[in-house]
Amino acid sequence: MKKMSLILLAALALVGCALSPQEVDVTPRIAVEKPIKPLQGTVSVTVYDERLSRSLGHRGGVYSNTNAITTNDRLTLAIRSAVELGLREMGLTVTESEDVSQFQVYLDDLEYKVPEGSYITQVDLKAKVRVRVVKGDQRFEGVYSSEISERVPKAPSDEKNEELIDKVLSDVLSRALADPRLRGFLKQA
């Protein structure tokens, strides 16, 4: 009887470590330091998802091969909305015209990793974007990255995963808009 209880307890523990696949809905928020003198001008924002897959990685646990964490189809729209808001806070006007400076954001990498094994103790996230601004024959290009590691007492919930992914995306986009070289180019464009 005691042996049967131990087997049942072990089986329940394994089931508790099984995680479902997750499709995240991100809403990054950019922290913009408003310039002393607001920027002037008009830009159009376009976002490109250059990743080879919508998958960020796996949530880990016992069945790590079956619990992919992916982004939904609204990812580029969410990034675009955040960037447009950030540019407006800097003083720029945002439009969809092709006759103005083109502010292009390329999402090159977005990763979610947990340690190998059945017990999740940490989540590592990484994001990388390129920003290209084109105004006539003038061009600016910058590359920005962010890495976040967070210790966790147990496998993160769906809500916690979205919060962590929002955090790494918000950080990398905030770094881009805080770049003095980018701001200097936008002043001239």
Largest sheet: 5 strands, mixed
Helix content: 25-40%
Structural class: alpha/beta
Number of contiguous helices: 4
**Low-confidence segments:** 5-17
**Average pLDDT reading:** 87
SSE string: HEEEEHEEEEHH
Global shape: elongated
Radius of gyration: 21 Å
Tell me what portion of residues adopts beta-strand conformation.
25-35%
Strand order of the largest sheet: 5-2-6-7-8
Terminal CA distance:
78 Å
- Work out the number of β strands: 8
Word description of this protein:
With 189 residues, the protein is of the alpha/beta class. 32% of the residues lie in helices and 33% in strands. The chain has helices spanning 2-16, 75-89, 158-178, 180-188, and strands at 22-24, 42-49, 55-58, 68-71, 93-94, 101-113, 122-135, 138-151. The protein has a five-stranded mixed beta sheet with strand order 5-2-6-7-8, with helices on one face. It has a three-stranded mixed beta sheet with strand order 1-4-3, covered by helices on one side. A hairpin with an 8-residue loop joins strand 6 (101-113) and strand 7. The longest helix has 21 residues, at 158-178. It is elongated and about 55 Å long. It starts with a helix and ends with a helix.
Give a brief outline of the structure.
With 189 residues, this protein is of the alpha/beta class.
SSE map:
Blueprint (H helix, E strand, L loop, with lengths): L1 H15 L5 E3 L17 E8 L5 E4 L9 E4 L3 H15 L3 E2 L6 E13 L8 E14 L2 E14 L6 H21 L1 H9 L1
Helix pairs in contact: 2-3
